[in-house]
Recover the amino acids of this structure.
């Protein structure tokens, strides 16, 4: 997996993963390949999908699990299991489930908490938590667009600068 360590711009809708998570995942995947533990559903074809009812569930080894935990969006690639070609329903096999559990157990879902305070001149400032900075690689001179969604909710979109 060559792409793992590459630095790239992260468009807003592409999930991000911390370098630590990536390393762990890489280790996990390496272990799996080393063990040559084959998926019990390998080769399975055209079984009934629990979601849409079609017989379109097939073995897949390129499944991705995605979740937001403690404000971090976590993506675990290269998982094995079944995928429905009709509706996209995914069922992970035991190995993949173990890997997913390893990363998700005991971690709260949700966003980051941050402080809002006065920064002088009557202005209000928000301080990004360190984790956010680490994950998103936000730099000091970067610009952002803030879009209020309601009076309690907003979206902050970083404008691309140097990446
Ligand atoms: Zn389906």
């Amino acid at each position: 997996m060559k792409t793992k360590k590459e630095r790239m711009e992260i468009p807003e809708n592409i999930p991000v993963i911390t370098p630590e998570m990536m390393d762990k995942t890489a280790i996990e995947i390496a272990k799996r390949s080393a063990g040559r533990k084959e998926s019990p559903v390998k080769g399975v074809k055209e079984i009934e999908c629990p979601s849409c009812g079609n017989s379109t569930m097939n073995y897949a080894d390129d499944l991705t699990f995605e979740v937001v935990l403690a404000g971090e969006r976590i993506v675990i690639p290269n998982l094995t299991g079944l995928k429905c070609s009709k509706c996209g329903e995914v069922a992970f096999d035991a190995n993949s489930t173990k890997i997913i559990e390893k990363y998700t157990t005991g971690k709260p879902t949700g966003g980051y908490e941050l402080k809002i305070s006065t920064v002088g001149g009557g202005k209000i400032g928000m301080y990004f938590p360190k984790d956010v900075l680490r994950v998103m690689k936000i730099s000091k001179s970067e610009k952002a667009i803030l879009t209020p969604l309601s009076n309690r909710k907003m979206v902050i979109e970083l404008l691309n600068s140097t990446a």
DSSP finds three helices and seven strands in the chain. Strands lie at 57-69, 72-84, 90-92, 115-120, 123-127, 144-148, 154-158. Residues 19-35 form the longest helix (17 residues).
